[in-house]
Structures are given as structure tokens and as C-alpha cells.
Amino acid sequence: MVRYKYVLFDFDGTIADTEEANFVIYQKLAEKYNLRNITIDELGHIKKMSAKELIEYVELKKRYLPFILKRGKKLLNQDIKNIRLCKGDILETVKILREMGIKTAILTTNSKDNVLSFLKAKDAEFFDFILSASMFGKESKMRRIIKKEKLNLSEVLYVGDEIRDIHAAKNTGIDIASVGWGYNTVESLKKHKPEYLIFEPSELIDICK
């Protein structure tokens, strides 16, 4: 018996190292949408912020958010096949979880097309499904998965790198393994009390046993 029947993964900052590409994309969009200019030196400070705090910090008008995200995803698509894995063994870990009888899926705010292109380039088209959510829509998608698959809350684990991932999981009632290699700093993640804080993908194997 395994502890979790389903492990849902975030994509950006958890599986795919899109940080540098997204920073370049932000610079392009900042001018068009009159957003605050961000320097490399500010990244350390920004990585402590939640998504809502960041939106406020860059002076983004909320009505522009869907358009900016859509444009950003399109720009990322041009380079997605060249994006590296966050951790070299993350896909191997997913394979092991699957061998343990655990279903694995990706729940992301990135586009399904981007995720599929990335996985195809990495010869990793073995996730059970991929779902795309709005910036703050992961919680409703988590609930949909749980209802559709007739799961108990205790059977689902989410793996993500952001504060908003912790909030979505906790609001849904499922456990979260926050990763120490993604967007938000370890210090900022700890403040929001994830069930697990991991620094290597292989830790998920022991967590799920």
C-alpha cells in the first residue's frame, strides 16, 4: 500500500526551469503594460513574495493579468523545447512513483501546449494527464480531479514551488510537498507550513511509501 494514490505536479519551477526565460519575457511585457521594471538584483527580494504581493509590487492592474499570462505563455512556447529540467532526476522519480502504482499528473498555470512540447522534447510523455489552471484557479481544478477520480483528500499529494501552491492545497484539504529549488525561497515557504519541504525529487519516493 502507498500513502498517496495521486501525485500532482506543478510545472514551472518544479519540473521545468523556466525562471530565466520568464524573466526575459517579463522585461518584454513590462514596457507594453507599463509594469515596474525589475532588475536581477531584485529577484532575491521578489522570490520571498506571494503571487498576490508580486502583482501589487510590479503595479499590475488585475484586469490585464489574463492578457499578460496568455502573451507570456505564447512567448515561452518559442523556447520551451530548450528549457532545462529543474532537477536532473525529477522525471526518473516520476517513473518510480508510477511503478509504485501511483498516478501522476501536472496541474499548472502554464499552457497545456507548452507542457506537452516540453515533455515531448524530454521524451517524457508518461503523465496520466495535464491540466491548465488560471493564476489562482488551482484549487478548483484540484477539487475537480478529486471528485472525478473519486479520491479521498488523504490520497492526493501536490508538489509545487510557490506559496500559492501551498494555499491551494491547504484550501482543498490535500497535503503538499513544497520544493526547495523553485521560485519562492525556502524561508518564505516554511512560513506557510507545507506538510513536506523537499530538496531532492527522490525524497518523494519515501514520502509516498
From TrEMBL:
Keywords per UniProt: Hydrolase
| GO molecular function terms attached to this record | phosphoglycolate phosphatase activity
The record's annotation in InterPro entries points to: HAD-like_hydrolase_sf (IPR050155), HAD-like_sf (IPR036412), HAD-SF_hydro_IA (IPR006439), HAD_2 (IPR041492), HAD_sf (IPR023214), PGP-like_dom2 (IPR023198)
Domain of life the protein comes from: Bacteria
- GO biological process per UniProt: DNA repair
Extract the Gene3D superfamilies matched here. Answer: HAD superfamily/HAD-like, Putative phosphatase, domain 2
Signal peptide start-end: none
Instruction: List, alphabetically, the GO terms of the cellular component aspect.
Output: cytosol
What PANTHER family does the record tag this protein with?
Answer: PHOSPHOGLYCOLATE PHOSPHATASE
Which NCBIfam families does this one have? HAD-SF-IA-v1
Name used for this protein in its record:
HAD-IA family hydrolase
Q: Which organism is it from?
A: Sedimentibacter hydroxybenzoicus DSM 7310
